[in-house]
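Worked example 4.2. Below are the chains of a multi-component assembly; read each line carefully before continuing.
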Amino acid sequence: MAYQLYRNTTLGNSLQESLDELIQTQQITPQLALQVLLQFDKAINTALANRVRNRVNFKGSLNTYRFCDNVWTFVLNDVEFREVTDLVKVDKVKIVLPHSSTTE
Amino acid sequence: MSNQLNLPQPKLYRSVIEDVINEVRELFLDEGVDEQVLMELKTLWENKLMQSKAVEGFNTEEQAALQAAAQQQAQQAQQATQQAQTQQVLLPPQQQAPQQQVIVQDPKILQHMSATGMNAATTAATLALPTGISPYQQLITSQGQILQVLRAANGTQYIIQPQQQMVLQQQVLPQMQPGGGQAPVIQQVLAPLQGGLPQQTGVIIQPQQVILTGNNVQQNAQVQGGAAPGGPQQQQQIQQQVQQVQQVQGGAAPGVPQQQQQPPMMLQVDGAGDTSSEDEDEEEEYDEEEDEEKEKDGEDGQVEEEPLNSEDDVSDEEDQELFDTENVVVCQYDKIHRSKNKWKFHLKDGIMNLNGRDYVFSKAIGDAEW
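Applying the procedure described above to all two chains together yields the following structure tokens:
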């Protein structure tokens, strides 16, 4: 099963909200909404794996780290995300990642 | 392709949306759900994405539709409940503890007022409408300060002043509305507040007390005029604006009934009674000290509460802000390594939301020190 990890992204959240609205107006069933989300998981995983081809470097200081249920959660402070063209600085960033079964 | 870093988002997201929609189309049909619903889902989804501003604009068509819809809504909002909305809209920017509380009441009052058929002044740039006739006056300064004088049917007036040095001459409705013996007199005291009252959020003055200005009518907005005749306390408060208003509420309640019956008994702040002046001084001093706190401890129980609430609000807001700007990265990892306190991350296939914007990467390498 594809990771449900990406549901908590802008893309995923907006999809969930939209589905919720439709459920409230009873245009779709919750069951159907669940199916949609599963489809979304598959699609986003595939898209990320295939459609994205860019690289990022980042550097910062680690505030906390957690590894539980095969999921890493890091909180970094004063991080710089560096891509080829630009740089993004953030004071605090949370990184959530489940272990990838397939390593490329 | 240097722009590929962030710009591919729209294309990528759009392609993802398309894929998902297509894949679920079958599901929808299986369920017997109309294609229309699917389109609606798509539209909702894209709208939210656009609103989040994490991604660049979507289909221009949708954008245009959305903008048009937004405009319509804005217009409707203005027309329909201009007062209420303006207040509400204005309220957030002010973000002052006392105001918030006041504001909550205001919308109710506003509605109430509108019911009474009062015409609310449109948002005027910092000028009180000299409409002596209209019982309800609402002033909204372009600066975002809201002056509202609300007359509730119950005779309780709330005056909110965003308080900034704005010389507002308000008009006091000297009339006591015969309608219900309510203290129609509403004085808007928003004046720049003598003594430079701190930016206290709106001042609430119970209408009855406000009456006093009615007689004097057209007193300068400077707090004094606004003070309700009900009691010297009220007047004082008006000057001080926020804090005073609160007090007035406390004191106005008991005094209100009395005043209604005796409209002519308006107390004038302007040198009317010594006590009032004394109070004023005390209050002014007190206010100045507390400027930003906006609360006079001991003056009113409500006042004390407000500052507490305001503090809570502030903290809540901060928490929310922190949370909102919390940048999240969801991805998968190839390898996580640590040496003593040096961590190395090898990540892949991630979506980042940094400073509100979305980024995507196929690989990410990072270093961090713990």
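Take a moment to check your reading of the output against the notes. Chain B touches chain A through 68 residues (CB under 8 Å). The two ends of chain B are 36 Å apart (CA to CA).
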